[in-house]
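In this supplementary section we document a worked example of the pipeline. Step one takes a protein sequence of length 501 as its only input; no multiple sequence alignment statistics are reported here. Step two produces a three-dimensional model, which step three serialises into structure tokens for compact storage. The input and output of this example are shown verbatim.
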Amino acid sequence: MQVTDPSETKATQSQPAFPTAVVKQRSQALLAGSRFWWLALACLILAIGLVFWSMPSGGTHIQIHFPKGHGLKAEDSVRYRGIDVGVVQTIHLTDDLDAVDVHVKLFPTAKRLATEGTKFWIVRPQLSISGISGLDTAVGHKYIMVQPGPADQAAARYFDGLASPPVDQGAGSGIEILLQADTRHSVNVGSAIHFRGVDVGRILSVELSPDARLVEVRGKIEEAYRSLLTTEAKFWATGGVDFDFSLTKGLKLDTESLDTLARGGVSMLVTGDGGPVSPGHVFPLSASPEEDWITQANNYRATSADLRGAINLTASWTESGMLGIGKRKRAEHFTGIGIQTSGGPKVFYPSDVRASAESALDDSFEIFIAGTEEILTATAQGKALIISAGLSAESATNLIAEAEISESVQPANWIAVRKSLDSDVFHHLPINAANIKLVRQDDDTHYWIISEFTGDRAVWHGTPVLQSSTSRLVGILIINDLGTTVHPIATVVVGESTYRN
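The serialised model returned by step three reads:
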């Protein structure tokens, strides 16, 4: 038996016990050891994002070669339709010191401008007898103006800038013609082409013919007046001033306009029903009109469309006088559309003309054919946009046949038709296809919005709208506080009810 010495046991118990370290295998992942790594990574990503977002957005870089700089500087803007679409980055002289090269960055939203055919020019103050332009740059920065080229052209990066604004700036589409004369006749670039005093086009260039035997004047007729350009169109120069002096009447001066006086001009008339012309058609340019041109032009009608369908209507009612004392008779003239339907002749007119019935006394509101005593009885009311009523045989003249209602929904060149109150003469107002926008409400209903319409509601509200090329009925013209629209009269509802909005 082993005996332990008490003194040794006591000594052993008095010595402190040391802890034993626990060793663990550390993860090799960089971010697994501390959450501070996650915070550092998040800060790094945020910094990269801020730097990326603060960098200028990309764009299309182009170079424009101008004859002169006209005080243009870096950071000046490039504008189209009154807004900035780019910025000038650098501008410097060419190596031969004969011109300047301007480096421009177009914004991403304006990359469509970097195509062949796009025109650039520097806007600067210009003063002439015909007007003032570029006045905003007199005390401010110069800028480059843009006129886009055709949409189907290829992309381009190098352009030759114009020394002055193009004469057809903002003119839109049209047809180019060539006038030939034995002398210039005071016609200049930018001169107007007039039709009965109305500007219908511009002169684009004045040059000698290749054989130098004639002067060739290149002009452009606006698309809205293209129907005037036929093989029977006549042109003559109108520059200068005509003087007429007599002892009884004194001195009389005659000129088209101040612009014509300053830059000359060209006038045109159409003397008969000629055929259509293609772009580049050559016309002679006379020094003055021949005597029979005016007479022949007075017998010419600009459209070949069959003008019909408009019926003059009158709304009549009685309402209380001022302060409720007495009564007064009221009347309003407007237009409807006469259609020969399978159910008999009918007239269609806007329902909003019946709003006056709310103030009418004793059911005095009536609508009748203007110039007659025939009262119309509506066959559909309520929320209908168009109201229909039957017509008597006496009033059923110049109607549109049911089969002549167009089913096409695509915008085209149209005309609004009205009839004189005191005669059987019809008048028309052109509606250009470029100003028409189709609006579909659902698969079965639609209408068109007309922009830049200049007709007055009192004259054109409720008039029929016909296709210029086929004379078919498109719909009824509605003019109200919401604007100008054309609503169709669907074939399936003609003769029974009305088209509802």
